[in-house]
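can u pls check wat happens w/ heme C
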Amino acid sequence: MEIGMLHTHVLVVTLFLLFLLFKTILLLVNKKELLTTVRTKFKMVDPILGVLMLATGGYLLSLYGSTAPTYLWVKLVIVIIIIPIGIVAFKKENKAMAIIALLLTFYIYGASEVGSLTFSKEEASTTTENNPAQYAEEVMITGDKVQLIKTGEEIYLAECKKCHGVDGKKGLFKAPDLSKSKLGLYERIAWIKKGKGVMPAYADELRNTEIEAVALYLDKLK
Ligand code: HEC
């Protein structure tokens, strides 16, 4: 369901961008009559795409809960700005405004692809140097293992399922298949504490024993 939503979102944004590009070109080459025809014939396209874009985007944003990265909020604000600029630009046949709307749309499209507002890989933390597994320290897991795994399962279903799926294979936001993960227990604990990119850091949200429990539970997915 979420993957379908992500694909729908990308498709809608792409259509919006192409339609905007088409209208901007018509405006720039002074094909005003054709532009008017296109605008009147397809006057429902922009409102429909706009609503779909915000609805699917809003839904995806809600999946992150309180952990949504800043660039997603900025994107939302920019989209809310683009829609009226676009409407006014073509109504008043204002080339500068049409170009601004087009550039802003390209910008958020690119920012989404890279997962960062400044297009820096580091901010998007997709670099391998920032791999939480490298921060793994030795931990001693104490306590009843069966009980820990049960607690781990509860936490997994409450916190992790939405992106990783019940079986660890869902892969929302390109999350790796946990049933095939080669990380050891300590590396997993470090991952869960530190997070990375879209994957939230749980160090402040869960107690150490809870993090250990869910890390232990991941073995059950294999
Ligand atoms: C918002 C979505 C999201 C949630 C919620 C989430 N993850 Fe992740 N997780 C990801 C993504 C995306 C990656 C890959 C990050 C990257 O490589 O940049 C990942 C990576 C991982 C990895 C590393 C796997 C590997 O082999 O490299 C582990 C382990 C993991 N998550 C466990 C968990 C656990 C346990 C929870 C719940 C406590 C959780 N995740 C919650 C999205 C999520």
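The chain has two domains: 2-124, 128-221.
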